[in-house]
Amino acid sequence: MTGKCFGRINEVFVITMTFAFIVSGILIFSTSVYLSSASTVYKVFEESSKAVGVYTVLANRLVHHGLSSGLFLILSGLCGILGLCLNNRLLLISFSAYAGFVIALVIAVIVFVELYPFEVTNAQLMRMEEHLRTSYLKDEQVKQVADLAQQNFKCCGVNGTGDYLYSYFYNKTGYIVPQSCCRKYNLTGWNETQYEHCRMGVESFLVKNSTSTELFYSHGCYENILLSLKTVKTAAIITLAVVLILELSLILAIIYLIRNDPNFKDDSYDVEESSPDYFVGRRKQLQSSIPEKTASEESEKMSLNSPSSHSVTNYDTFRETPSI
User: Gene3D superfamilies this protein is in (predicted)?
Assistant: First the structure.
């Protein structure tokens, strides 16, 4: 009873993991297709990476790897479903091989995430600052990327508000910081006058005893993004570890299913076939299948093989030979 219950639970687990392959593959593939299309966010990120020179091909690699990984997961899941529906041993073994490949890939990603330094060199950092000073407001795409980062990560500039001092933005507008660096104190946000004071970098406005750090974000985006990346890194390692455990469990479940479920028994080989009794019984079976010879066939064979028949034949041959 316990074995039957465990077998059903094991089969349900394999089915669930098979559908999880397909669903995750569809999500990854569709997300990659969306990013590779005419997406403003993707184009801005790609152009910004090219301009700054940091992680130049990151966006393309993410999209291409996402497309291939999503397609691989979908095909693997379909292989598992066909193996379960058709009770096909070979398809299930192939599905477990795909799961093994995923395990190897997960281990590689964990090692990469753990060892890869998610930091930029001082030269790259200086280049980012210089690009922000010279291109913000002049290049609309750079402005979109900077505003998006400053609003989402609650930061200002690459290393702080000083990045905008004597920049192209400062020379054109006379403002200390752009509007995306300003804090919002309520759900409705600030009005234009309040934003004007913020952009001018006044030390206090509306809030009693407030300072400039309360009016706009003083921390640089590089520091905040780095902290966010470390948080994402930890979450990614934990998620990948869980995926690794699930994939190992899936392979063991498939092995148990193939070995114990009679629907997946391989008829091409049986352990009993290797025993001597099997071969003896098989030989008797083959002998019994051979038709017995009739009595006339046996007598004819005996007459042909008898010595008298040979002598008569030789005598007749000698008699027919003409004399000289």
Answer: Tetraspanin
Q: What is the DSSP string of 57-83?
A: THHHHHHHHHHHHHHHHHHHHHHHHHH
Please report whether residue 224 resides in a domain.
no
Q: How does DSSP assign 150-183, residue by residue?
A: HHHTT--SSSBGGGGTTSHHHHHH--SS-GGGB-
Q: Give alpha helix (H) positions in the chain.
A: 2-36, 40-52, 58-85, 89-115, 122-135, 140-152, 168-173, 192-200, 212-215, 221-260, 276-289, 295-305, 307-320
Which pLDDT band, with edges at 50, 70 and 90, does 169 fall under? very high
Phi-psi category of residue 154: left, alpha or beta, with phi > 0 → left and psi -120 to 50 → alpha: left
| Tally of domains in the chain | 2
Residue 176 is assigned to a structural domain of this protein = yes
pLDDT tens column, 255-278: 988 888 777 765 444 444 445 555
Query: Residues 6 or more apart from 49 whose CB is under 8 A from it?
Result: 55, 56, 57, 58, 59
With CA atoms as reference, report the closest residue to 36 among 68, 74, 73.
68
∠ CA 187-179-192, nearest 5°, is: 65
User: Both 210 and 133 in a single domain?
Assistant: yes
User: How many Cβ atoms are within 10 Å of 282's Cβ, its own excluded?
Assistant: 11
DSSP class of residue 291 equals P
Render pLDDT for 132-151 as a digit per residue (tens, 0 to 9): 999 998 988 888 888 988 88
* Residue 321 lies inside a defined structural domain of this protein: no
Beta-carbon contacts of 90 under 8 Å, excluding residues fewer than 6 positions away, are 83
Other CB atoms closer than 10 Å to residue 221's CB: what's the count?
25
Q: What are phi and psi of 219, to 5 degrees?
A: -75, 145
Same domain as 134, residue 103:
no
Beta bridge partners of 160: 219
